[in-house]
């Protein structure tokens, strides 16, 4: 038997047929149609409240110039100088922007430069927004944190917590004073530089705050960026969140969508690392197993929490929001503008048939 055939038997590939599927993308109407000069990106999961769909996202205006302009005020990236805005829709296709939900803090606050990449949790009559924060100046070596704001209604008013709920591990050492994130004396933990893309999931009686870690002196791995995720766990939605000793809990995933599936937690990752493009499942929300490989996972996807996500593994992804880049001709990626798009996900057809074919082959 060939190595591949042995591996297929050992890993029992066909057992997870229902986890395989494919994405399609489409543009949106109303305020989510591409608008020149405006960035709308990183949409949260979609909540269905009183007959309307709602999402929260990062919004900014104007050009981005990258690092090294010499002007500390110049917008660095599309997600620099952003605030959290929100929008609603009757049908998920035509969206109406409703205004700003949470804006940057006062000068000197931990979030005085940018707030971005939000996620939302509705729990016990309250809404919890979590998002990344940057304190000025925005340099290569700046350490991002995670903030939280709480409201009684999706329309706010939002009250920010005084302090970040999650910070980067403080155990790496920069080499010299040059603003170069690759020069280190010691790398530190997988999240020694940044904590990003927070997502809140309730698991049992605990609150799991999943996040992407970036490491000081980041290296490449499997031909891509060294990016892994961690989880921090709390007894109450507002924390304190304690990082799990099992971190990192993934080996990949620039952006992850994470959702409750039956008694456990499911996730799908896009970009970076050897397990990019996989759907994974965990009973305890910490130890994830690869269930399937998915082609072309859209960027920054958010699921729709109002669907019956327990019907089958990809049900929570039946549709949701994501973003695309519009890059003006002759410009670099960071000079582009993002706009929010919709995706749909469908299980692959014929999965039952291929399962029976494999079982038959093994018997032969
Ligand atoms: C995204 C996310 C975070 C990063 C940047 C904006 O893909 O991982 O949000 O900070 O890129």
Describe this protein's structure.
The chain has about 375 residues and is mostly beta strands. It has one domain: Tachylectin-2, Chain A (5 Propeller). About 5% of the residues lie in helices and about 40% in strands. The protein has helices at about 5-10, 350-364, and strands at about 20-25, 30, 40, 45-50, 50-60, 85-90, 95-100, 115-125, 125-135, 145-150, 160, 175, 185, 195-205, 205-215, 220, 225, 230-235, 240-245, 255-260, 265-270, 280, 290-295, 320-325, 335-345. The strands form seven sheets. Strands 2, 3, 4, 5, 6 and 7 form a six-stranded mixed β-sheet that branches. The protein has a four-stranded antiparallel β-sheet with strand order 8-9-10-11, with no helix packed on it. The protein has a four-stranded antiparallel β-sheet with strand order 14-15-18-19, with no helix packed on it. Strand 6 (about 85-90) and strand 7 (about 95-100) form a beta hairpin. The longest helix has 13 residues, at about 350-364. It binds 3,6-anhydro-alpha-L-galactopyranose. 3,6-anhydro-alpha-L-galactopyranose binds near residues 42, 116, 117, 197 and 300.
